[in-house]
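Bench log. Compound arrived from synthesis this morning; before running ITC I wanted a structural hypothesis for how flavin-adenine dinucleotide sits in the protein. Inputs:
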Amino acid sequence: METGKKVVIVGGGIAGLSAGIYALKAGYQAEIYEKNAVPGGECMGWNRKGYHIDNCIHWLTGTDPDTKLWQVWKTVGAIDENTEYANTSRFYTSRLGDKEVTLWNNLEKTQEELIKAAPEDEAEIRKFIEYVGYAKACVIPSEKPLDMMGIKDYISMGKDMADFPKVMKEYGKINIKDYSQKFKSPVMRKLMTDYLPADYTTYSLLVSYATMVCGNGNIPLKGSLAMSLRIASRFKEMGGILHLNTPVNRIVIEGKKAVGIELEDGTNIAADAVITACDVDFLFGRLISRDYMPKALKKAYENRNGYPITSGFQVAYAIDSDFSGEDTIFFDCEPLQIGSNEFSRMSVKSYAYDKSFAPEGKTVLQANIVQSDSDYQFWESLSKEEYSAKKAHFAEKVTKRIIREFPELEGKIELLDCWTPLTYNRYCNAYHGSYMGFVTTVGNKQMRFKGVVKGVDDLYIAGQWVMSPGGLPIAVVSGKFAVQRILKREKRSIDI
Ligand SMILES: Cc1cc2nc3c(=O)[nH]c(=O)nc-3n(C[C@H](O)[C@H](O)[C@H](O)COP(=O)(O)OP(=O)(O)OC[C@H]3O[C@@H](n4cnc5c(N)ncnc54)[C@H](O)[C@@H]3O)c2cc1C
């Protein structure tokens, strides 16, 4: 149904593109304004020296066609029945000395191997595996926002998630670092702390692993940028207008109503409704006054220890061999001081699972050193010259550590690129360079807020920050939810 009304969207990442597609589905005209030359935001990849650096999807939640989230991904054109996925068989491997343990996609195989490697932890391992099984029941609400759900919806969600409260009871009030201490074996402790930051609540690890185990977290072949471009094409094919290289300067508010946006070049664009789908720290402060910020968000920004963020110092390499198949491997390294923090553990991930990323017989390898708020401050404190020099300096140190761990790479490893939390801030205006939403730490409420702005009508918020932990599924459903909020305000059906 054509309404003749226009929805303007700020940001062409996954949330913005999704909002655009659902706005068109609901009969609105839709225009997206994106500051970068390429859509996709943090769901991104780029080419260097004949290689493709894929920089997002480690797993895409919602690849199981029996889930409601799959339907959303299909609607936006990200995946469908014919999508081909990487043939991966493991989540990751942790090494310590001569010991190595792996979380395989097959739970029985994992249990057997872990018990063999750490018989002293058999009881704790069995419990971990049992609860990963329960964690498969974790569902991301995809039909409508939680506050629009009725009693029937809650009953149905309760049924779907029947086993999940068990996981929350056991693993919802302990952080990963404390949880790892339940294991006696040093390599098991590493396995538990390697993947997610130590202050995350433990259930996040179980849910992430469970998503892979149950086949609902695959990696679409051709990578993250290709997926973003598929979604952008769907938006344009449906009649949406995507303005690239067009940064937005502010939301125009008249009285108590958002009436459009002002572009950085001063042009005013009128709209019946505005959806912002960019970082919310940028929204409240740059696009509109910080006075409008919801209380919960304000508290999170003031409590940096309670609501930390995640970013990375990342280095990509071309490897002149078919290196190690599909592995993400964590290992001890000689301590590396970056700013005020010292790192003695790092990981490499081989992208050999996708042949389109490298010439035949060669592979892309990436290293990631997880970065936090304080690391961001270090990078930010540097002058332009110091920043470039430090990046090169640390990349070289990382390379040396990789060669020490994998001597077979000597003479076969070439630096392609390296980037820092500052890169995410420059590229996407991401708060402290975060590529996920706020981390939920023990004792703090999970961050979640309604995608509306109190005191401003016709302004809606999409994007991964509306619900922790963020990530692609939250981004894609938040775009749909923003449009449903418009429909509800217009007293129309929210079934889209
Ligand atoms: C290394 C890495 C690995 C990841 N792995 C996974 C994973 O395995 N699974 C998963 O689910 N998620 C993963 N993520 C997270 C995922 O990429 C993000 O959660 C998601 O892409 C966020 O989408 P978004 O649309 O909410 O925000 P963004 O992608 O940040 O989009 C916001 C958009 O707004 C634009 N913008 C900002 N300011 C303006 C302005 N003034 N005017 C116009 N446009 C503006 C930005 O350029 C950007 O395009 C990963 C991210 C990274 C970087």
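What the model suggests: The pocket of flavin-adenine dinucleotide is lined by residues 10-16, 33-36, 41-43, 55-59, 247-248, 277-278, 282, 312, 428-430, 435-436, 463-464, 470-473, 475 (CB under 6 Å). The longest strand covers residues 328-338.
ITC booked for Thursday regardless.
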